[in-house]
Specification:
The complex is a heterodimer.
Chain A (H helix, E strand, L loop, with lengths): L5 H10 L23 H23 L7 H32 L3 H27 L11 H27 L8 H20 L19 E7 L12 H7 L3 E6 L5 H10 L3 H4 L6 E4 L13 H10 L3 E4 L11 H7 L4 E4 L10 E4 L1 H6 L4 H15 L6 E6 L1 H4 L5 H23 L4 E7 L8 E7 L7 E3 L5 H8 L4 E2 L20 E2 L17 H10 L5
Parallel strand pairs in A: 1-7, 1-8, 2-10, 5-6, 5-7, 11-12
Antiparallel strand pairs in A: 2-9, 3-4, 8-9
Helix pairs in contact in A: 2-3, 2-4, 2-5, 3-5, 4-5, 4-6, 5-6, 11-16, 13-15
Chain B lengths: L8 H19 L9 H12 L5 H12 L4 H23 L8 E2 L2 E2 L1 H5 L1 H20 L6 H15 L4 H10 L7 H25 L5 H28 L2 H4 L12 H5 L1 H19 L7 H12 L3
Antiparallel strand pairs in B: 1-2
Helix pairs in contact in B: 1-3, 1-14, 2-6, 3-4, 3-9, 4-6, 4-9, 7-9, 8-9, 9-10, 10-13, 10-14, 13-14
Chain lengths: 532, 298
């Protein structure tokens, strides 16, 4: 007699009408041994489903993320392990409930539905909070999310039933498979309705400018410690700046992207959304992301403490408000922007991103040289607004005096040239001097050279910089901005008098192919002294 | 995780039901015949020899599940045990398995002779139908359906067919389907009849009967495979009957191998419990029978 294999025996017994139960047979497998062991798969599958939902949320809110399998895989792995303790805790609570349950079938179904609902909540809520503009292809993530939610729901239900049976020998009632199917379909429909039909902020009507004949040049100089007596190499710059009209504000501690986005947008960080080096990059992922709903505790706190995640530089996608060069470009005024933090391509605007400037720099001196080179290459005249961000002095803040002096001289030469043009009324020059690492009681400054004006100094706010620049370029100031045009810094009647209700939110254009990955950018920033 | 201190519904149920069941088995014996005292003794010994009483307990539990009158399900349970006892007597005969021990005692034909053993079996079968046909607190239709279930289990499509096929089978040429056909009739059929009969006594609906049938079929096959495993590995003293009788015959344990057989027993028992799930908590006693079968040592 030939021995029949186990698989063959199962198959043939099924054909004979055995091994078919009314509910999942495996529910009772471990229960026979007196254990509710099915909570282990419930914990694992629920953690997996939660991680999938969070990853799907990131994919919906972060352009380009879903196209990187490495980034998706790494984040999924991180969040899976991060979710395990929470799901284990919930499983323990469910186990206690199962022990006490007198109606395990209904309770188990309810637990399964809750699990499925939580998965969809993480997906929908996460995507909702990360982006207002969900691309259609992001809804494809609904398939793995739905499958994962179904698995989680069924495993939770099975675990509950097994536990209840192991303890009380109470059997469930009718199977409830279709309930979960209906719940998952409902979840997908809800996602489509909530995310797909979510009213997108309509792009505001572009302000109607009254273009001025003179271009406005904005030189943003970081690390210019005008209030520090020990800073070497800046006496020439200091001497130059005191000849302009100065608006000052009390400097505050912060990190470069946040401080410079205040200046660029006319809004505080709570409005423009660029907060420090807000992104986090999970170990193994080439991309930084904003933590989706319910994951900040891990991605921002625990993982960095365990060296499993690091800060990642912000990108233009993080900024929710328009920078002044973007407003100008939208209003039809040609603009150039070189080297600003959290900047990115914008229609009508020639933008060189911060990472592209820093990519080829070996230090502060070369960073400024590259920025100035790019700036000079692009400002061929005709632009209404041209701006360059010079990070060199900030990068060199702790460097030896000689290199810093060289960098300061390089900035000085540039500014001196620009000031002479401004005094000759060839352009309006606005110098933004805001130290990203200010000393206590230091000031931030906006120094204006607009023809020959009497020297004076007034207090303004950092947020006044952007509307002032825009008004001087002929763009109506937005009344919903925190900042206001600082008319006292400019010649009388030189600012645009009309106003507009709003410049609208920054609705990001499609992300371009990155020429430099976040990881490379991060390493470059570290090598230049940031992120220390 | 430590085994929880759960109550064991079947054990509790058996403990509370067995005393009254034993009394009913004894009370329901055919009246002693003065002209055939040996036959009467043989009938009594066949029924009252110590057994696990699984089948009548199943019938009682099924009756309790559907809230059948205790007298009605008790009568079905007794009838089932009588049929089972008769099948054991016949199975042990020299013309069949030629067994020497049953329930820890010499087989009936060794004590009373083949002829008396055969007559005792026939008398028990007749008594079973007599009792079922007169089951109290039931309708005529219910009694008729119970008799029908018992007939099907023991008759030409049930135990008799299984035994005949078993005797005729070529041990070396038996396929899984052949073995299943034999044992689903020899063992499974009476389990099915017990559970359905008990439930019918309470007027169970078709859906309930369907769940119970599925339960009993899976349980019966698991029971049989366990029996085969015990036959291979058990001792006559512990089992209370001859063992290793099937060494030269095909059975599930030899067909699947010991490890796979144990695995299949688990899966069949899981399926049997799963089949009960639509019946909810009231099926707890029957469901716990799966544990009993899994843990059985005799």
């Amino acid at each position: 007699m030939t021995e029949v294999s186990l698989e063959e025996a199962r198959r043939r017994l099924r054909e004979l009408g055995y091994l078919n139960g009314g509910v999942e047979r495996f529910v009772f497998r471990r229960a026979f041994a007196g254990r509710g062991g099915l909570f282990v798969p419930a914990v694992l599958l629920s953690a997996f489903a939660a991680a999938i939902a969070s990853v799907a949320a990131v994919a919906a809110g972060e352009p380009g993320f879903g196209e990187s399998p490495t980034a998706v895989g790494a984040l999924l792995l991180h969040l899976f392990f991060a979710d395990l303790p929470a799901t284990a805790l919930l499983a323990a609570v469910l186990a206690l409930a199962a022990d006490q349950s007198r109606s395990p079938a209904g309770a188990a179904t309810f637990a399964g539905l809750t699990a499925a609902g939580a998965v969809f909540f993480l997906w929908i809520g996460g995507a909702y909070s990360l982006s207002r503009d969900i691309p259609a292809r992001a809804f494809l993530w609904g398939i793995p999310v739905a499958l994962a939610a179904m698995l989680a729901a069924r495993s939770v239900r099975s675990g509950f039933l097994a536990r209840a049976y192991a303890r009380s020998r109470v059997l469930p009632g009718e199977p409830r498979r279709r309930v979960f199917l209906a719940a998952v379909i409902t979840g997908v429909v809800a996602a489509v309705l909530l995310l797909g039909l979510r009213p997108r902020p309509a792009p505001a009507r572009a302000p109607l400018p009254s273009p001025r004949s003179m271009p406005v040049v904005v030189a943003a100089v970081d690390g210019l410690s005008l209030d520090s007596s020990s800073a070497g190499g800046i006496s020439g710059i200091r001497g130059l700046l005191v000849t302009g009209v100065t608006g000052w504000w009390p400097a505050r501690q912060g990190v470069p992207p946040e401080i410079w986005s205040d200046l660029a947008t006319g809004e505080p960080a709570s409005h423009h959304g660029v907060r420090a080096l807000a992104r986090v990059r999970a170990a193994g992922s080439p991309l930084g992301v904003r933590p989706p709903l319910g994951t900040a505790w891990y991605l921002r706190r625990l993982a960095p403490a365990l060296k499993l995640a690091s800060s990642a530089p912000v990108s233009a996608a993080d900024r929710r408000r328009l920078a002044f060069w973007e407003v100008a470009a939208s209003a039809g005024i040609p603009a150039v922007s070189v080297g600003w933090w959290a900047s990115g391509p914008w229609p009508g605007c020639d933008v060189v991103r911060n990472e592209d400037v820093l990519a080829g720099a070996s230090g502060g001196l070369t960073a400024d040289a590259r920025a100035l080179g790019e700036f000079e290459k692009r400002r061929r005249g005709g632009q209404g607004i041209a701006t360059v961000y010079l990070p060199g002095l900030d990068i060199l803040r702790d460097s030896n005096n000689e290199e810093r002096i060289q960098a300061a001289e390089q900035v000085h030469r540039f500014l001196e040239n620009e000031v002479s043009r401004a005094v000759a009324r060839e352009e309006v020059l606005v110098i933004l001097a805001a130290d990203s690492h200010p000393a206590p009681s230091a000031l931030g400054r906006m120094v204006v050279f607009d023809g020959r004006q009497p020297v004076r100094t007034i207090q303004v706010r950092a947020e006044d910089a952007a509307p002032s620049i825009l008004s001087r370029a002929g763009v109506p100031a937005a009344t919903d901005l925190t900042g206001r045009p600082a008319a006292a810094l400019f010649p009388a009647d030189s600012l645009e008098r009309t106003t507009t209700a709003t410049y609208g939110p920054r609705l990001a254009p499609p992300a371009p192919r990155l020429s430099i990955t976040d990881r490379e950018y991060l390493e470059k920033l570290k090598s230049l002294g940031y992120l220390q | 995780m430590a085994r929880p201190a759960a109550n064991l519904p079947f054990d509790d149920f058996a403990a509370s039901s067995l005393p009254s069941l034993e009394k009913e088995l004894s009370r329901s014996l055919p009246p002693a015949s003065g002209r055939a005292p040996d036959l009467s003794r043989a009938i009594g010994e066949a029924v009252l020899s110590p057994g696990k009483r699984l089948r009548p307990l199943v019938a009682l539990a099924a009756g309790e599940l559907v809230r059948a009158p205790r007298a009605a399900s008790g009568t079905v349970a007794v009838a089932v045990e009588y049929l089972h006892a008769a099948s054991l007597v016949l199975d042990d005969l020299p013309s069949m398995d030629n067994a020497r021990r049953r329930r820890g005692r010499p087989t009936l034909h060794l004590v009373h002779g083949v002829a008396t053993a055969e007559l005792a079996a026939v008398a028990l079968i007749a008594r079973a139908f007599e009792l079922a046909a007169a089951a109290p607190e039931t309708t005529a239709r219910t009694r008729s359906r119970v008799v029908e279930e018992l007939s099907r289990a023991i008759g030409a499509e049930g135990c008799c067919a299984g035994q005949a096929a078993d005797l005729a089978a070529d041990p070396s040429g038996l396929a899984l389907e052949d073995l299943e056909a034999i044992h689903s009739r020899k063992t499974g059929a009476l389990f099915v009849a017990a559970v359905r009969g008990g439930a019918l006594a309470g007027g169970a609906g078709e859906e309930t009967l369907e769940s119970l049938t599925l339960f009993a079929r899976n349980l019966g096959l698991a029971f049989q495979i366990t029996d085969d495993l015990l036959d291979l590995t058990g001792s006559p003293q512990r089992m209370g009957k001859d063992t290793h009788r099937d060494a030269h015959r095909a059975n599930f344990a030899t067909l699947f191998g010991e490890a796979s057989s144990r695995k299949l027993v688990e899966e069949l028992l899981e399926a049997s419990v799963a089949a009960l799930s639509p019946l909810g908590r009231k099926a707890a006693v029957l469901a716990d029978l799966a544990r009993v079968v899994r843990d059985r040592q005799t």
